[in-house]
Design brief:
It catalyses: dTDP-4-dehydro-6-deoxy-alpha-D-glucose = dTDP-4-dehydro-beta-L-rhamnose. The chain is mainly beta. The protein contains 2 helices and 15 strands. The chain has a single domain, classed as Sandwich (Jelly Rolls). The site of dTDP-4-keto-6-deoxyglucose has 12 residues, from strand 5, strand 6 and strand 12.
Length: about 190
């Protein structure tokens, strides 16, 4: 397991090993003990999500759930290719409003750990792209929130993305009354 930090403290890039043979490969996509042995202890996951976006340039985000249903997410790409983004929206954080993005693909097997307190979004870079991700809290529709994809200064490298109505009508980051508070790590 390759573990890399990012410019956003707490957001990690995790790349599991792939064991290749004549059939293809085998990979442990999630192993709590492997990460703990490397000093990384993530919260418990309670829900797995899976979405497929048929069209290149489909953009889902920027989303969050308010406490007590705030979600940490461990994100990977099951098929195709996407650009995945986390945005820090924890009040008082030194990196508030800052974003980090990386390409996740079936080919690179890379995963992004996004703690609670960050917005999450992605744009697809191939047709029929599938994203699968583990969440640390259950879905709660009433706690669901969205921030406009083009209000953060993210370099999505996409024009006129395919959006849901919710995402098209989302509030700009400047108007967000963030429900998250930054807590200095011990
Ligand atoms: C998120 C979610 C949605 N749904 C239902 C609600 C709707 O009937 C349908 C589509 O939901 P939505 O349009 O919110 O799906 P996305 O636009 O992919 O939203 C997700 O995309 C970004 C990138 C995320 O990180 C979140 O997990 C989530 O906000 O699935 C559920 O039943 N359970 C769920 O956990």
């Amino acid at each position: 397991m390759q573990i890399e930090t990012t410019p956003l403290p707490g957001v990690l890039l995790l790349t599991p090993a792939r064991h290749g043979d004549a059939r293809g490969f085998f990979s442990e996509s999630w192993n709590r003990r492997t990460l703990a042995d490397a000093g990384v202890v993530l919260p418990e996951f309670v829900q797995d999500n899976h979405s497929m976006s048929a069209q290149t340039g489909t953009l889902r985000g920027l989303h969050y759930q308010s406490p007590p249903f705030a979600q940490g997410k461990l994100v990977r790409c099951g098929r195709g290719r996407l650009f995945d983004v986390a945005v820090d929206v924890r009040m008082g954080s030194p990196t508030y409003g800052q974003w980090f993005g990386t390409e996740l693909s079936f080919e690179n097997g890379r995963q992004l750990w996004i703690p609670a307190g960050f917005l999450h979004g992605f744009v697809t870079r191939e047709p029929d792209t599938e994203i699968v991700y583990k969440c640390t809290a259950h879905y709660d529709r009433a706690s669901d929130g969205a921030v406009a994809w083009d209000s953060v200064g993210i370099d999505w490298d996409v024009t006129d993305p395919l959006l849901s109505d919710k995402d098209r009508d989302a509030q700009p980051l400047a108007e967000l009354k963030s429900p998250f508070v930054f807590e200095e790590q011990a």
